[in-house]
Specification:
31% strand, Rossmann fold, alpha/beta, 251 residues, single chain
């Protein structure tokens, strides 16, 4: 089991604590994604693969507004959490264990839209690994389909290589929750430690470690273009309302 799989297995039961209101976030992000799909000629009859679905943040929201969604992930713990949340929200989603570097090993069918949101692609720690992921995702997309992904704004972050992220502070029924990350850089790679501190009746601190490679937008643009996509476009938070830059590409 690699560091990424371990990270998400360990954080699965805590992942929703990173949001003030996870359910509201699913609804807000579904509206944003629906707008992007519609602007690119896709309606709610399309088939969507969320190939880094985690606990279902995008999958559940899109299914709730009528999309045919399949979710996949390498973390069985996150898939179990996603299935539970889909049931709680009364949406029908198929969830499968799959590595997005080898989607054809799990799926025979192709999809109209394939998504990899929430900074999933920078888990690829080398350029070769990133290209394998991009090829796999494009291969699983129908001709004329759409690839959608979001990453951190690494073009900006690489200018200063900050040692931590600003904290999120949420009021809870028990008190206050603080979540933040520390980053230890080695070249373009960095080791991330995620802290979640619940300061309520009792103090609890959770800590999870992972690793990323800061992926520049041009690198991802070039890989999408070189592997069969065209009309590659970047959409920024001030345009979409989403918290990360989003890349869209037609196959």
């Amino acid at each position: 089991m690699n560091i990424t799989q371990t990270f998400y297995d360990d954080i699965a039961a805590h992942y929703d604590k990173l949001f003030l209101d996870w359910g509201e976030t699913t609804r807000e992000q579904a509206v944003i994604l629906d707008s992007i799909f519609t602007a690119n000629g896709f309606d709610r009859s399309v088939k969507v693969l969320d190939c880094a679905c985690g606990i279902g943040t995008q999958s559940v929201g899109l299914a709730a507004i009528g999309y045919d969604v399949t979710g996949s992930d390498i973390s069985d713990a996150e898939l179990a959490e996603a299935r539970k949340r889909a049931a709680q929200h009364n949406v029908d989603i198929r969830f499968d264990h799959a590595d997005f570097c080898a989607l054809s090993d799990t799926f025979e069918r192709k999809f109209d839209i394939v998504m990899a949101m929430d900074n999933a692609l920078p888990h690829m720690l080398t350029s070769n690994d990133l290209e394998a992921a991009v090829r796999s995702i494009i291969n699983q997309t129908e001709d004329g389909g759409l690839v959608v992904a979001s990453i951190r704004d690494y073009d900006a972050l690489l200018e200063t290589k900050p040692p931590y992220s600003p904290p999120y502070i949420h009021e809870t029924e028990q008190g206050r929750r603080v979540s933040f990350q520390t980053w230890k850089w080695l070249g373009d790679n960095y080791r991330l430690t995620q802290y979640i501190i619940d300061d309520g009746d009792d103090l609890s601190v959770s800590r999870f470690e992972c690793e990323y490679r800061a992926t520049r937008r041009q690198e991802l643009t070039d890989l999408l273009s070189a592997n069969g996509c065209h009309n590659v476009e970047w959409l920024f938070p001030e345009q979409t309302g989403f918290y990360q830059p989003i890349v869209i590409a037609k196959k």
